[in-house]
Each structure stands twice: as C-alpha cells, then as structure tokens.
Target: Selection and upkeep of intraepithelial T-cells protein 2 isoform X1
Amino acid sequence: MECIMIASFILGSLYKECLSVRFQVSSIPSVSVALGSDVLLPCTLTPEKNGEKMEIRWFRFRYQPYVHLYINGKDDYTAQMPQFANRTELLKENITRGIFPLIIRNVTAQDSGEYHCYVESSDHHGMAAVQLQVTAIGTVPVISINNDTISCESRDWNPKPHLTWTDNEGNEINSSMVEVFRNENHLYNILSIIQQPNASYITCTVSNSINHSNDSRQIRELEHSQTSRDMRSRVYVIGASFILICFGCICLLLRSLCKYLLQLDGCTFFFQTSSNNKILE
Model:
C-alpha cells in the first residue's frame, strides 16, 4: 500500500512537471530597423501548438495599455497604446502552428525599446522579450569657422551618436565642448566645438554603435581658406591704391592742362589788343 502511494506521488509530480513545460514562448534577442520602415517582431511556441484560442498580448512597459492584443479569437484595440494606433498587425497565417509575429509599420524613434510577447492558454502561460532598435543616419556634418573656434554639427541620429575630430595626419583633436540632445522627433543632434588647430585641414566624423560608416564627413582646408582671404584682401588694397593713384594723376594732368589753356588764352588776348591799338594810331 505504501509503495502504491509513493508511486502515485511520483506520477503526480511528473504530471505537474509536464504541465509546467506544456509550451515555451520564444523570440530573438534583438531586431534593428531603419527609421520609417516596417518591422517584424517574432513570437513562437515550442513545441508547435495551435494559438487560435489563446491570449496573445504584446506589451512594453506595462501589461496594459498594450501594443497589440489578440483574445477570444480576434484582435482587441480597446486599450492599445495611442502611439501604435493603426500601425500594428498580428500575422495569423501560421497561428495554428504556434507562430504569430507582430508587424509594426512606419517605425519611429519612440518605438525603440523592449517588447514582450505574452501567451496564455487555459492551463499555462509563457513570455518572451525582444529588443527593437530603430536606427537613423543623421545629416552630413556641417563645419563652421568663427574667429578662433571651429564648430561641427549633425542632426537626426539614432541611437546616440559620438563625434571625433582629426587633423591631416589622422591625429585626434580634443573638443573643448560637446553637446548631445534629443530634438522634437526624439532623434539625437550633436554639436562640438574646438579651438582652431595648426593643421592644413581637419575632419569631423559622426557615427554611432549601429552605423559605423564614415560617409558623414566634411573636410575644410583652413590654411588655404585663410590664405585665399588674405590674398583677396591684398588684391583689394592694391587695386584701390592703384585707382587712387590713377585718379590723382588724372587730376594733376587736368590741372596742368587748364593752366596751359588759361595762359594761352591770355597771350592771344594781349596780341589782339596790341594790333588794334596800332591800327587806331
């Protein structure tokens, strides 16, 4: 009798253990997607089970309001987060096999973060998490020269970018100020200022942990620009001086010519007066 009781206890324990692993919910660790694109967040049951009569809930920070809810065989949008309105869809083509990914359309920077896929049946539940990273390559950096300082600015990055300065030999230049902040679109802007270095040109490169490309680069030849400005200034000064000298010479020539003409008219008047007097005599 005691052996039967022990056997029953062992069988009951095994049965409960089997129930506790009735299915597992799985996804992938992370998904990256470009800003404005559509993204697919996977959610799968293992082993395969029909999920038509289960509750499938996608949520972020809290159980409710949710990102998307499928319950009682249909989608329920009554407590959906406002930012996801008309942008989500639970794909049900393979729901009988325990596969029901979520589509989020036209992703924004605010959509970045962790998502939870919670699945509940009549006798079991499980949950998996996936990290969504929305990426954005910002604008081409703009370098500006102001007296003894140089600034570099780039906008609309995600995730948070970093900025580096290098000279013509590839040596890094330390920034005197770096500012990174979110704009109205929840994307990152970055601004950096350095003291003007003794280099023939400088490079400002902006990148982040996702976008490693250096196509966001602008080069400004400082010495050449300064030399050009100096040369233009010298040309202006020389040209103005030449014009003034020419104007002065013309004025002197005109003055001399006027004196000559006045003297010539006086002599003519004298000779004419003398001739008239002789005739009268």
